[in-house]
Design goal:
Radius of gyration: 30 Å
Oligomer: single chain
Order of helices and strands: HEEHHHHEEEHEEHHHHHHHHH
Helix content: 40-55%
Protein name: Transposase IS66
Strand order of the largest sheet: 5-4-3-6-7
Structural class: alpha/beta
Distance between the termini: 58 Å
CATH class of one domain: Alpha Beta
Largest sheet: 5 strands, mixed
CATH superfamily of one domain: Ribonuclease H-like superfamily/Ribonuclease H
Pfam family, one: DDE_Tnp_IS66
Strand content: 5-15%
Number of strands: 7
Shape: extended
CATH architecture of one domain: 2-Layer Sandwich
CATH topology of one domain: Nucleotidyltransferase, domain 5
Length: 439
Amino acid sequence: MLTELRTIKAQLARNSTTSSQPPSQDKPWQPKSERQKTGRSSGAQPDHPGKTLKMSAHPDVIVDLPVTGHCTCGQAWDDVPVDTQVARQVHDLPDLHLQVTEYRADVKICPGCRSRQRAPFPTHVTAQVQYGPRVHALTVYLNVAHFVPLERTSEILHAVCGARPSDGTIALNLNLAAERLQDFEGRLRTALTHQPVLHADETGSPVNGKLHWMHVVSCAQLTFYGQHARRGLAALEHMKVLPKYTGILVHDAWSSYFKLPAQHALCGAHLLRELRGLAEHHGQVWAGALRESLRTVYHDLNAGTLSPEARTAFERRFDELLEEGLLANPAAPPVPGRRGPTKQSHGRNLALRCQQHRAAVLLFLHDCRVPFDNNQAERDVRAWCVKRKVSGGFRSEEGGCNFARIRSYISTLQKQGLSVWEGLVSVFTGDVLMPNFNP
Protein backbone atom coordinates (compact mmCIF):
# COMPACT_ATOMS: atom_id res chain seq x y z
CA MET A 1 0.00 0.00 0.00
CA LEU A 2 2.84 2.41 0.84
CA THR A 3 4.48 1.71 -2.54
CA GLU A 4 1.22 2.32 -4.41
CA LEU A 5 0.65 5.59 -2.53
CA ARG A 6 4.16 6.78 -3.36
CA THR A 7 3.62 5.89 -7.03
CA ILE A 8 0.36 7.86 -7.17
CA LYS A 9 1.98 10.90 -5.51
CA ALA A 10 4.87 10.74 -7.98
CA GLN A 11 2.46 10.64 -10.93
CA LEU A 12 0.57 13.67 -9.61
CA ALA A 13 3.84 15.58 -9.08
CA ARG A 14 5.20 14.92 -12.59
CA ASN A 15 6.06 17.94 -14.72
CA SER A 16 8.43 18.84 -17.53
CA THR A 17 11.40 19.01 -15.15
CA THR A 18 11.01 15.48 -13.77
CA SER A 19 9.91 13.55 -16.86
CA SER A 20 9.44 13.77 -20.63
CA GLN A 21 6.09 15.48 -20.13
CA PRO A 22 5.87 18.63 -22.34
CA PRO A 23 5.90 22.05 -20.60
CA SER A 24 2.38 22.76 -21.93
CA GLN A 25 1.03 20.21 -19.42
CA ASP A 26 2.78 21.78 -16.41
CA LYS A 27 0.79 23.34 -13.62
CA PRO A 28 0.56 27.16 -13.62
CA TRP A 29 3.58 27.75 -11.41
CA GLN A 30 7.10 28.07 -12.76
CA PRO A 31 8.99 24.73 -12.89
CA LYS A 32 12.55 24.48 -11.68
CA SER A 33 15.34 25.16 -14.14
CA GLU A 34 18.43 23.04 -14.70
CA ARG A 35 20.55 26.14 -15.33
CA GLN A 36 23.17 27.09 -12.81
CA LYS A 37 22.91 30.53 -11.24
CA THR A 38 25.47 33.02 -12.58
CA GLY A 39 24.80 35.84 -10.11
CA ARG A 40 24.00 38.25 -12.93
CA SER A 41 20.72 40.10 -13.12
CA SER A 42 18.21 39.19 -15.82
CA GLY A 43 17.99 41.14 -19.05
CA ALA A 44 20.74 42.87 -21.02
CA GLN A 45 24.17 42.90 -19.39
CA PRO A 46 26.38 46.02 -18.96
CA ASP A 47 28.56 45.11 -21.96
CA HIS A 48 25.58 44.48 -24.24
CA PRO A 49 25.97 46.66 -27.38
CA GLY A 50 22.24 47.27 -27.76
CA LYS A 51 20.27 48.08 -30.90
CA THR A 52 18.47 51.18 -32.08
CA LEU A 53 16.85 52.42 -35.29
CA LYS A 54 19.57 53.78 -37.59
CA MET A 55 19.44 56.72 -39.99
CA SER A 56 19.13 55.61 -43.62
CA ALA A 57 21.83 56.86 -46.00
CA HIS A 58 19.37 56.74 -48.91
CA PRO A 59 15.95 58.09 -47.90
CA ASP A 60 13.12 57.55 -50.39
CA VAL A 61 11.49 60.94 -49.82
CA ILE A 62 13.15 64.18 -48.73
CA VAL A 63 11.02 67.01 -47.37
CA ASP A 64 12.82 70.36 -46.99
CA LEU A 65 11.52 72.54 -44.18
CA PRO A 66 12.35 76.21 -44.83
CA VAL A 67 12.77 78.84 -42.15
CA THR A 68 10.06 81.46 -42.68
CA GLY A 69 9.06 84.75 -41.10
CA HIS A 70 11.43 87.31 -39.66
CA CYS A 71 14.32 87.39 -37.23
CA THR A 72 13.89 89.34 -34.00
CA CYS A 73 15.95 92.11 -35.59
CA GLY A 74 13.47 92.36 -38.50
CA GLN A 75 15.50 90.49 -41.14
CA ALA A 76 13.29 88.38 -43.45
CA TRP A 77 14.44 84.74 -43.34
CA ASP A 78 13.48 84.22 -47.01
CA ASP A 79 16.41 86.45 -48.01
CA VAL A 80 18.99 84.57 -45.91
CA PRO A 81 20.88 81.60 -47.50
CA VAL A 82 20.75 78.19 -45.79
CA ASP A 83 23.77 77.60 -43.56
CA THR A 84 23.21 73.88 -42.82
CA GLN A 85 20.40 71.39 -42.25
CA VAL A 86 19.43 69.14 -39.34
CA ALA A 87 17.86 65.86 -40.44
CA ARG A 88 15.30 63.61 -38.77
CA GLN A 89 13.83 60.48 -40.35
CA VAL A 90 10.50 58.67 -40.05
CA HIS A 91 10.55 55.02 -41.10
CA ASP A 92 7.05 53.91 -42.07
CA LEU A 93 5.16 51.68 -44.47
CA PRO A 94 3.83 53.16 -47.69
CA ASP A 95 0.11 53.17 -48.37
CA LEU A 96 -0.54 49.54 -49.35
CA HIS A 97 -2.86 48.58 -52.18
CA LEU A 98 -2.90 45.99 -54.92
CA GLN A 99 -1.07 47.00 -58.07
CA VAL A 100 -3.14 45.78 -61.01
CA THR A 101 -1.17 44.97 -64.17
CA GLU A 102 -3.25 44.46 -67.31
CA TYR A 103 -1.68 42.45 -70.13
CA ARG A 104 -3.15 43.23 -73.56
CA ALA A 105 -2.22 40.65 -76.16
CA ASP A 106 -2.39 41.84 -79.76
CA VAL A 107 -4.53 39.81 -82.13
CA LYS A 108 -3.84 39.92 -85.86
CA ILE A 109 -5.61 38.38 -88.86
CA CYS A 110 -3.62 37.44 -91.95
CA PRO A 111 -5.01 39.33 -94.98
CA GLY A 112 -4.14 36.44 -97.24
CA CYS A 113 -5.40 33.24 -95.53
CA ARG A 114 -7.43 34.94 -92.78
CA SER A 115 -5.49 33.01 -90.12
CA ARG A 116 -5.88 34.51 -86.65
CA GLN A 117 -2.81 34.93 -84.42
CA ARG A 118 -2.65 36.18 -80.80
CA ALA A 119 0.45 37.31 -78.94
CA PRO A 120 1.35 34.91 -76.09
CA PHE A 121 0.74 35.92 -72.47
CA PRO A 122 3.58 35.51 -69.92
CA THR A 123 3.78 31.99 -68.52
CA HIS A 124 2.61 33.10 -65.05
CA VAL A 125 -0.52 34.77 -66.45
CA THR A 126 -2.91 31.83 -66.79
CA ALA A 127 -6.36 33.29 -66.05
CA GLN A 128 -8.37 36.32 -67.05
CA VAL A 129 -8.14 37.69 -63.49
CA GLN A 130 -5.74 36.31 -60.90
CA TYR A 131 -3.56 37.20 -57.95
CA GLY A 132 0.18 37.64 -58.44
CA PRO A 133 3.09 35.75 -56.86
CA ARG A 134 3.51 38.18 -53.95
CA VAL A 135 -0.10 37.79 -52.84
CA HIS A 136 0.27 34.00 -53.05
CA ALA A 137 3.56 34.16 -51.15
CA LEU A 138 2.03 36.33 -48.42
CA THR A 139 -0.81 33.87 -47.81
CA VAL A 140 1.70 31.01 -47.44
CA TYR A 141 4.00 33.14 -45.28
CA LEU A 142 1.21 34.01 -42.83
CA ASN A 143 -0.22 30.49 -42.68
CA VAL A 144 2.97 28.40 -42.54
CA ALA A 145 5.60 30.74 -41.09
CA HIS A 146 3.29 32.36 -38.50
CA PHE A 147 0.53 29.73 -38.15
CA VAL A 148 -2.31 32.14 -38.98
CA PRO A 149 -5.48 30.17 -39.85
CA LEU A 150 -6.90 30.43 -43.37
CA GLU A 151 -9.83 32.72 -42.54
CA ARG A 152 -7.70 35.12 -40.52
CA THR A 153 -5.09 35.14 -43.30
CA SER A 154 -7.78 36.33 -45.69
CA GLU A 155 -8.90 38.99 -43.18
CA ILE A 156 -5.35 40.30 -42.77
CA LEU A 157 -4.85 40.67 -46.52
CA HIS A 158 -8.17 42.45 -46.87
CA ALA A 159 -7.31 44.88 -44.07
CA VAL A 160 -3.79 45.59 -45.31
CA CYS A 161 -4.09 45.70 -49.08
CA GLY A 162 -7.72 45.13 -50.03
CA ALA A 163 -7.35 41.53 -51.28
CA ARG A 164 -9.64 38.84 -49.88
CA PRO A 165 -8.56 35.42 -51.20
CA SER A 166 -10.87 32.56 -50.26
CA ASP A 167 -9.88 29.61 -48.08
CA GLY A 168 -9.82 27.50 -51.23
CA THR A 169 -7.40 29.88 -52.94
CA ILE A 170 -5.04 29.79 -49.96
CA ALA A 171 -5.25 25.97 -49.86
CA LEU A 172 -4.38 25.86 -53.57
CA ASN A 173 -1.39 28.13 -52.87
CA LEU A 174 -0.17 25.67 -50.22
CA ASN A 175 -0.59 22.76 -52.64
CA LEU A 176 1.29 24.59 -55.40
CA ALA A 177 4.12 25.64 -53.08
CA ALA A 178 4.52 22.06 -51.82
CA GLU A 179 4.58 20.75 -55.38
CA ARG A 180 7.28 23.19 -56.45
CA LEU A 181 9.40 22.35 -53.39
CA GLN A 182 9.71 18.65 -54.23
CA ASP A 183 13.20 19.15 -55.65
CA PHE A 184 14.21 21.09 -52.53
CA GLU A 185 13.01 18.25 -50.31
CA GLY A 186 14.90 15.63 -52.31
CA ARG A 187 18.13 17.58 -52.12
CA LEU A 188 17.53 18.23 -48.42
CA ARG A 189 17.22 14.50 -47.71
CA THR A 190 20.51 13.84 -49.44
CA ALA A 191 22.27 16.70 -47.65
CA LEU A 192 21.14 15.49 -44.22
CA THR A 193 22.62 12.03 -44.76
CA HIS A 194 26.06 13.65 -45.17
CA GLN A 195 25.95 15.61 -41.89
CA PRO A 196 28.23 14.33 -39.08
CA VAL A 197 25.62 14.90 -36.35
CA LEU A 198 21.83 14.96 -36.64
CA HIS A 199 19.04 15.51 -34.10
CA ALA A 200 15.68 13.73 -34.15
CA ASP A 201 12.42 14.14 -32.28
CA GLU A 202 8.67 13.74 -32.79
CA THR A 203 5.39 15.16 -31.50
CA GLY A 204 1.69 14.52 -31.97
CA SER A 205 0.02 16.18 -34.97
CA PRO A 206 -3.72 15.42 -35.26
CA VAL A 207 -5.19 14.85 -38.71
CA ASN A 208 -8.98 14.93 -39.07
CA GLY A 209 -9.39 14.14 -35.38
CA LYS A 210 -6.97 11.19 -35.38
CA LEU A 211 -3.52 11.22 -33.81
CA HIS A 212 -0.69 11.38 -36.33
CA TRP A 213 2.95 12.28 -35.74
CA MET A 214 5.27 15.00 -36.95
CA HIS A 215 8.90 13.88 -37.11
CA VAL A 216 11.88 16.20 -37.37
CA VAL A 217 15.46 15.48 -38.44
CA SER A 218 17.71 18.52 -38.24
CA CYS A 219 21.08 20.12 -37.64
CA ALA A 220 22.18 23.72 -37.14
CA GLN A 221 21.68 24.66 -40.82
CA LEU A 222 19.05 22.22 -42.17
CA THR A 223 15.57 21.12 -41.08
CA PHE A 224 13.42 18.30 -42.42
CA TYR A 225 9.83 17.73 -41.22
CA GLY A 226 7.74 14.69 -42.06
CA GLN A 227 4.11 13.95 -41.23
CA HIS A 228 3.06 10.31 -40.76
CA ALA A 229 0.29 8.24 -39.20
CA ARG A 230 2.83 6.22 -37.19
CA ARG A 231 5.41 7.17 -34.61
CA GLY A 232 7.80 4.27 -35.00
CA LEU A 233 10.14 2.78 -37.57
CA ALA A 234 7.60 2.87 -40.42
CA ALA A 235 7.52 6.67 -40.21
CA LEU A 236 11.32 6.94 -40.14
CA GLU A 237 11.59 4.70 -43.20
CA HIS A 238 8.96 6.77 -45.01
CA MET A 239 11.01 9.94 -44.44
CA LYS A 240 13.98 8.32 -46.28
CA VAL A 241 16.70 10.03 -44.26
CA LEU A 242 17.64 8.06 -41.14
CA PRO A 243 17.48 4.49 -42.52
CA LYS A 244 20.64 5.18 -44.56
CA TYR A 245 22.32 7.58 -42.12
CA THR A 246 25.49 6.30 -40.44
CA GLY A 247 26.63 9.41 -38.57
CA ILE A 248 25.81 10.39 -34.98
CA LEU A 249 22.09 10.67 -34.15
CA VAL A 250 21.08 12.56 -30.99
CA HIS A 251 17.66 11.56 -29.62
CA ASP A 252 15.69 10.91 -26.44
CA ALA A 253 15.99 7.08 -26.34
CA TRP A 254 12.74 6.32 -28.18
CA SER A 255 13.13 2.62 -28.99
CA SER A 256 12.57 2.99 -32.75
CA TYR A 257 15.73 5.05 -33.14
CA PHE A 258 17.90 2.17 -31.88
CA LYS A 259 16.81 0.11 -34.90
CA LEU A 260 18.64 2.54 -37.19
CA PRO A 261 22.26 2.11 -38.36
CA ALA A 262 23.42 5.44 -36.89
CA GLN A 263 25.78 5.86 -33.94
CA HIS A 264 23.57 6.94 -31.04
CA ALA A 265 23.88 9.78 -28.53
CA LEU A 266 21.21 10.18 -25.85
CA CYS A 267 19.86 13.50 -24.62
CA GLY A 268 21.35 14.37 -21.22
CA ALA A 269 18.59 16.87 -20.44
CA HIS A 270 15.97 14.09 -20.57
CA LEU A 271 18.13 11.97 -18.27
CA LEU A 272 18.50 14.82 -15.76
CA ARG A 273 14.73 15.27 -15.62
CA GLU A 274 14.11 11.57 -15.02
CA LEU A 275 16.78 11.45 -12.30
CA ARG A 276 15.23 14.47 -10.59
CA GLY A 277 11.83 12.79 -10.62
CA LEU A 278 13.25 9.63 -9.02
CA ALA A 279 15.14 11.59 -6.38
CA GLU A 280 12.36 14.01 -5.44
CA HIS A 281 9.27 11.80 -5.70
CA HIS A 282 10.57 8.26 -5.07
CA GLY A 283 13.37 8.96 -2.58
CA GLN A 284 16.02 7.36 -4.82
CA VAL A 285 19.29 8.61 -3.34
CA TRP A 286 21.43 7.16 -6.12
CA ALA A 287 19.43 9.12 -8.71
CA GLY A 288 20.05 12.42 -6.93
CA ALA A 289 23.76 11.68 -6.65
CA LEU A 290 24.02 10.68 -10.33
CA ARG A 291 22.15 13.80 -11.37
CA GLU A 292 24.55 16.07 -9.47
CA SER A 293 27.60 14.25 -10.82
CA LEU A 294 26.27 14.50 -14.36
CA ARG A 295 25.50 18.21 -13.99
CA THR A 296 28.96 18.90 -12.56
CA VAL A 297 30.87 17.08 -15.30
CA TYR A 298 28.77 18.75 -18.00
CA HIS A 299 29.41 22.26 -16.68
CA ASP A 300 33.13 21.52 -16.22
CA LEU A 301 33.30 20.23 -19.78
CA ASN A 302 31.45 23.28 -21.04
CA ALA A 303 33.82 25.59 -19.17
CA GLY A 304 36.89 23.74 -20.46
CA THR A 305 38.05 22.75 -16.96
CA LEU A 306 37.39 19.00 -17.11
CA SER A 307 40.66 17.07 -16.77
CA PRO A 308 41.16 13.52 -18.09
CA GLU A 309 41.45 12.29 -14.50
CA ALA A 310 38.11 13.90 -13.57
CA ARG A 311 36.47 12.35 -16.64
CA THR A 312 37.73 8.90 -15.68
CA ALA A 313 36.59 9.37 -12.08
CA PHE A 314 33.12 10.42 -13.24
CA GLU A 315 32.74 7.37 -15.47
CA ARG A 316 33.73 5.13 -12.57
CA ARG A 317 31.22 6.91 -10.33
CA PHE A 318 28.58 6.63 -13.08
CA ASP A 319 28.91 2.84 -13.13
CA GLU A 320 28.88 2.59 -9.31
CA LEU A 321 25.69 4.64 -9.00
CA LEU A 322 23.92 2.56 -11.63
CA GLU A 323 24.77 -0.57 -9.64
CA GLU A 324 23.32 1.15 -6.56
CA GLY A 325 20.21 1.93 -8.57
CA LEU A 326 19.74 -1.71 -9.51
CA LEU A 327 20.18 -2.78 -5.88
CA ALA A 328 17.63 -0.17 -4.77
CA ASN A 329 15.20 -1.40 -7.44
CA PRO A 330 15.32 -5.23 -7.43
CA ALA A 331 13.75 -7.09 -10.32
CA ALA A 332 10.02 -7.73 -9.93
CA PRO A 333 9.18 -11.45 -9.88
CA PRO A 334 7.11 -12.93 -12.72
CA VAL A 335 3.35 -12.75 -12.25
CA PRO A 336 1.79 -16.22 -12.31
CA GLY A 337 -0.41 -16.74 -15.32
CA ARG A 338 0.68 -13.54 -17.11
CA ARG A 339 2.52 -13.79 -20.41
CA GLY A 340 5.33 -11.53 -21.52
CA PRO A 341 8.01 -9.68 -19.53
CA THR A 342 7.18 -8.49 -16.04
CA LYS A 343 6.72 -4.75 -15.61
CA GLN A 344 9.65 -3.24 -13.70
CA SER A 345 9.89 -0.05 -11.67
CA HIS A 346 10.84 3.20 -13.38
CA GLY A 347 14.07 3.36 -11.38
CA ARG A 348 15.18 -0.09 -12.50
CA ASN A 349 14.27 0.58 -16.13
CA LEU A 350 16.26 3.83 -16.11
CA ALA A 351 19.33 2.18 -14.55
CA LEU A 352 19.16 -0.69 -17.05
CA ARG A 353 18.79 1.71 -19.96
CA CYS A 354 21.83 3.71 -18.86
CA GLN A 355 23.85 0.52 -18.55
CA GLN A 356 22.73 -0.86 -21.88
CA HIS A 357 23.34 2.40 -23.73
CA ARG A 358 26.26 3.64 -21.65
CA ALA A 359 28.32 4.69 -24.68
CA ALA A 360 25.40 6.71 -26.09
CA VAL A 361 24.74 8.45 -22.75
CA LEU A 362 28.40 9.45 -22.30
CA LEU A 363 29.32 10.14 -25.92
CA PHE A 364 29.31 13.90 -25.27
CA LEU A 365 32.36 13.38 -23.02
CA HIS A 366 34.46 11.84 -25.79
CA ASP A 367 33.34 13.59 -28.99
CA CYS A 368 33.34 17.38 -29.07
CA ARG A 369 30.84 17.36 -31.96
CA VAL A 370 28.15 15.81 -29.76
CA PRO A 371 26.08 18.19 -27.61
CA PHE A 372 24.91 17.26 -24.13
CA ASP A 373 21.23 17.63 -25.02
CA ASN A 374 18.81 17.36 -27.91
CA ASN A 375 17.79 21.02 -27.80
CA GLN A 376 18.27 21.45 -31.56
CA ALA A 377 15.45 19.04 -32.39
CA GLU A 378 13.29 20.26 -29.51
CA ARG A 379 13.55 23.85 -30.76
CA ASP A 380 12.56 22.68 -34.23
CA VAL A 381 9.60 20.72 -32.80
CA ARG A 382 8.37 23.77 -30.87
CA ALA A 383 7.03 25.42 -34.03
CA TRP A 384 4.82 22.41 -34.66
CA CYS A 385 3.46 22.58 -31.11
CA VAL A 386 2.47 26.21 -31.71
CA LYS A 387 0.68 25.17 -34.92
CA ARG A 388 -1.18 22.48 -32.99
CA LYS A 389 -2.28 24.95 -30.32
CA VAL A 390 -3.52 27.47 -32.87
CA SER A 391 -5.30 25.19 -35.34
CA GLY A 392 -5.65 21.88 -33.50
CA GLY A 393 -4.30 19.91 -36.45
CA PHE A 394 -4.99 19.31 -40.13
CA ARG A 395 -8.09 18.34 -42.10
CA SER A 396 -6.25 15.87 -44.30
CA GLU A 397 -2.98 13.95 -44.52
CA GLU A 398 -2.12 15.83 -47.71
CA GLY A 399 -2.50 19.15 -45.89
CA GLY A 400 -0.16 17.99 -43.12
CA CYS A 401 2.45 16.74 -45.59
CA ASN A 402 2.28 19.98 -47.61
CA PHE A 403 2.68 22.04 -44.44
CA ALA A 404 5.67 19.91 -43.39
CA ARG A 405 7.48 20.41 -46.71
CA ILE A 406 6.92 24.17 -46.78
CA ARG A 407 7.91 24.48 -43.13
CA SER A 408 11.13 22.55 -43.86
CA TYR A 409 11.95 25.15 -46.52
CA ILE A 410 11.15 28.10 -44.26
CA SER A 411 13.12 26.75 -41.29
CA THR A 412 16.17 25.99 -43.45
CA LEU A 413 16.15 29.49 -44.94
CA GLN A 414 15.86 31.02 -41.46
CA LYS A 415 18.78 28.97 -40.12
CA GLN A 416 21.00 30.12 -42.99
CA GLY A 417 20.06 33.80 -42.67
CA LEU A 418 18.24 33.87 -46.03
CA SER A 419 15.07 35.87 -46.65
CA VAL A 420 11.98 33.72 -46.12
CA TRP A 421 9.89 36.30 -47.98
CA GLU A 422 12.13 36.30 -51.04
CA GLY A 423 12.21 32.52 -50.94
CA LEU A 424 8.42 32.17 -50.93
CA VAL A 425 8.04 34.74 -53.71
CA SER A 426 10.58 32.78 -55.75
CA VAL A 427 8.47 29.64 -55.31
CA PHE A 428 5.55 31.32 -57.07
CA THR A 429 7.65 32.98 -59.76
CA GLY A 430 9.00 29.57 -60.78
CA ASP A 431 12.68 30.08 -59.90
CA VAL A 432 12.99 28.64 -56.40
CA LEU A 433 15.67 30.18 -54.16
CA MET A 434 17.69 27.22 -52.90
CA PRO A 435 19.60 27.22 -49.61
CA ASN A 436 23.14 25.92 -49.20
CA PHE A 437 22.95 22.13 -48.98
CA ASN A 438 26.61 21.82 -47.93
CA PRO A 439 26.79 24.19 -44.95
